[in-house]
Amino acid sequence: MIAPLLTSFSIGALNFPNRVVMAPMTRRRAAYGKLPTALMAQYYAQRASAGLIISESIEVDPLSGLQGPTRPGLFNEKQRDAWLLVTRAVHEAGGRIFAQLSHMGRAAHASQLEPGGRVIAPSAIAASGQIYTAKGPVPYETPAELDTTDIATLVQQYALAAALAQEAEFDGVELHGANGYLIDQFLRDASNQRIDHYGGSAANRARFLLEIFDAVSQVWPRSQIGVRVSPTNTFQGMGDSDPVAHFTAIAQLLSARAPAYLHVVEPPVQPEGVPYVAGAIRANFTGPLILAGKFGLATGNAAIETGRADLVAFGESFLANPDLPQRFLSGAALNEPDKATFYTSGEAGYTDYPFAQG
Ligand SMILES: Cc1cc2nc3c(=O)[nH]c(=O)nc-3n(C[C@H](O)[C@H](O)[C@H](O)COP(=O)(O)O)c2cc1C
């Protein structure tokens, strides 16, 4: 019997030859100006056998929400044109790629922003931990609380990036609502204590995401807009008082909009005491569901077989194995990821992982 991960799947007009998704992964190899490069095109094209590639997080705001010069952007035409290198290389290699649109929000540092940029968030609550700057690691700053005019501008920035992504010939976009970045900062109540209609209830906290979704759906069919969330991730001081109830509500609101998919970062087995929110999301979201987080061949197949997911995204294992679906098919051993080169420059640990022989 063919492994569930290696069976085909379709979303709208897009046909995926397998259900092995390449998870979005920041690799910090863009050129000055936040421009994608030929090396990035090679890296993604090597991984074109994925059912779907989700790009590394791509910055949408030219002033705020940035982190370092080597994370790519999609807020001007030069960046759009440079992304064509990547999308065309992936398509020529037979693949499909979505652009992950993102904003760091409070997880940025003033020293890394453009003049006029600010560290911003739904509420003036600093992320916990430290951020790496040119002067070494420093504590996160307390962000400025966004006002509703700022929020409207941000929504338009996502819409512009989505339009540029379409011109750059991506197959769709993913709204990065996970891992403690701006949309996630709105979604969860440890970082969102607003008293206006962007805070309070789960529906209010989801308003920013839904406004972005609606603005982006002026540009893209809904079946080409995915959403990523991480309901129980505690990275950077994130938290939520009731993730099951809150993400049940968020899943229902998203379900009504029929996005391409909902992408949930949650491992197959949660640490003790942490609820399995993906189950509640599955029960309350009618569209395709992607799960990500520490999955392997066996747990990925099981997730699909038992109906817990439609597709499974692989991060570190796809980073280290450009031919991951083929290795899953043949049973070939996997290359080990080299963490030391996750965020360095050049080919080492990027485009030089070997393909399996034969
Ligand atoms: C080097 C690296 C960079 C990452 N960058 C992003 C990112 O840009 N956006 C995002 O949503 N997740 C990012 N992640 C998280 C992955 O998408 C994925 O959820 C995580 O690695 C867990 O999956 P895994 O155990 O299969 O690696 C990153 C992970 C790694 C290892």
TrEMBL record:
- Superkingdom classification of source: Bacteria
Report the residue ranges that make up the NADH:flavin oxidoreductase/NADH oxidase N-terminal domain in this protein: 7-333
Any matching Pfam family: Oxidored_FMN
Which InterPro entries does the record cross-reference, listed alphabetically?
A: Aldolase_TIM (IPR013785), OxRdtase_FMN_N (IPR001155), Oye-like (IPR045247)
Name this protein carries in UniProt = Alkene reductase
